[in-house]
Amino acid sequence: MRDADLAPDTQRIEVHSITAVVLAAWDELVATLSTASRQRRKHDIVRRQEMTRTIQHIIEVGPGVGTSRTPTYPEGAVTDGWHEIEWRNFGSRENGTYYGGIWFGGPGTARIDSIPSDQFVCIRKGAARFTDANGDSRHFEEGAAFLMPKGFAGEWELLRETEIVYVALGPFDSNVP
């Protein structure tokens, strides 16, 4: 049957019905989008609140803060006079991403078989010389900053009392605490 064969009232009812269905679908779409928009705004507000940090989230880096640690070395790996203590002030090896703090050491030399992670280092006081397995060396003084690569092997010589701020970047070799 063609539209022309329908009575005019029937055509109006059919068009009216189609219009009602389209408007109902439109209302449903608008309601769904409004709900999604409200949920997104609520999620954004909650996320901003979770990301907001306060003065309590600032972590001091220094001695007496965090966990102290004194590394041990195999027999003959350090010279007389070598001493060190490390204060891990933030992060942890367990989280697998990073940790850091402050490190203090005294004159002497330590043999390093392999640095367990990339480490960003800033010498606050003192001086150090690193000599690799090939015999090449680099000297760093107070104020120097550098990235010590994971796997570096050689000697670490402290020329005087030295203070270092560091961040160790994971992943970490599992054989070193």
- Output the CATH homologous superfamily of the largest domain: Jelly Rolls
Oligomer: single chain
Regions with pLDDT < 50 over 5+ consecutive residues?
none
Largest sheet, in brief, is: 6 strands, antiparallel
Query: How many structurally independent domains?
Result: 2
- The total beta strand count reads 10
Give the radius of gyration.
Answer: 33 Å
Mean pLDDT: 83
- The end-to-end distance, rounded to whole angstroms, is 85 Å
CATH architecture of the largest domain: Sandwich
What is the general shape?
elongated
Strand and helix order: HEEEEEEEEEE
The CATH topology of the largest domain turns out to be Jelly Rolls
By CATH reckoning, the class of the largest domain would read: Mainly Beta
Q: Can you list the strand order of the major beta sheet?
A: 1-2-3-10-5-8
Number of helices: 1
Organism: Streptomyces lanatus
Domain (S)-ureidoglycine aminohydrolase cupin: 95-160
Protein name: Cupin domain-containing protein
InterPro entries: RmlC-like_jellyroll, RmlC_Cupin_sf, UGlyAH_Cupin_dom
Brief summary of the model shown:
The chain has 177 residues and is α+β, with helices and mostly antiparallel strands. Helices cover 25% and strands 34% of the residues.
Describe what you observe in this structure.
- The structure is a single chain.
- The protein is an alpha+beta fold and 177 residues long.
- It contains one helix and ten strands.
- The protein folds into two domains: 3-51; 67-169, Jelly Rolls.
- The chain has one helix at residues 8-51; strands at residues 67-69, 84-92, 98-105, 108-112, 118-125, 127-132, 137-141, 145-148, 154-158, 162-169.
- The strands form two sheets. A six-stranded antiparallel beta sheet has the order 1-2-3-10-5-8, with no helix packed on it. A four-stranded antiparallel beta sheet has the order 4-9-6-7, with no helix packed on it.
- A hairpin with a 5-residue loop joins strand 2 and strand 3.
- The longest helix has 44 residues, at 8-51.
- The radius of gyration is 33 Å and the shape is elongated.
- The N and C termini lie far apart (85 Å).
- The model has no long low-confidence stretch (mean pLDDT 83).
- Residues 95-160 form the (S)-ureidoglycine aminohydrolase cupin domain.
- This is Cupin domain-containing protein.
